[in-house]
Amino acid sequence: MAGTEEFVEADNAEVIIARIEHKSRKIESLLKQFKPVEALKTALEVSPPKTRDERCKSANWIVVHRAIMAIKDVDGMFSLLDPEYYDILMKYLYRGLYAADRHTCDQCLRIHEKLTEKAGLGCTLRALADTVNIF
């Protein structure tokens, strides 16, 4: 049944945050090696369990945001990014637009334009319609 997804309760939030911190260290290492697309893949592929805990969502967004902002060559990114990441990336782009920071919004809109060209409008619609996996 739709909407009956199980969520991790707040008492496990510390475990989730520890996983996010581990992911953050891995992403920072990739960025130091000048591998921003690999950092983005890592940020997108290792999503935390579904949780209602805002601390976990915010901590994960910070990690994904760091990877998104490191992308300089958007066209080159799509030559290395597998289509399996497109829907997840689109959801985070909307989270970035919601953040309302001008620099973040500019980057998210640049990527959004190219992602829509590459993946089509279905990717956008799936991101907007998914009310369960809200990052």
Describe the structure.
This protein has one domain: Serine Threonine Protein Phosphatase 5, Tetratricopeptide repeat. The N terminus is likely disordered. The longest helix is centred in the first third of the chain and has 20 residues. It starts with 12 loop residues before the first helix and ends in a 6-residue tail after the last helix. By secondary structure, it is mainly α. Helix 6 packs across helix 7.
Features:
Serine Threonine Protein Phosphatase 5, Tetratricopeptide repeat, cytoplasm, 135 residues, ARPC5_sf, ARPC5, cytoskeleton, Actin-related protein 2/3 complex subunit 5, globular, mainly alpha
Shape: globular
Helix run count: 7
**Estimated structural class:** mainly alpha
CATH topology: Serine Threonine Protein Phosphatase 5, Tetratricopeptide repeat
Described by strand count, sense and barrel closure, the largest sheet is: none
CATH superfamily, by name, is Actin-related protein 2/3 complex subunit 5
Ends distance: 21 Å
Mean pLDDT: 86
CATH architecture: Alpha Horseshoe
Name the beta content range: under 5%
Number of separate strands: 0
Broad CATH class: Mainly Alpha
Low-confidence sequence ranges: 1-5
Query: Could you spell the SSE succession in H and E letters?
Result: HHHHHHH
* Rg calc: 15 Å
How many structural domains can be distinguished in the coordinates?
Answer: 1
Helix content: over 70%
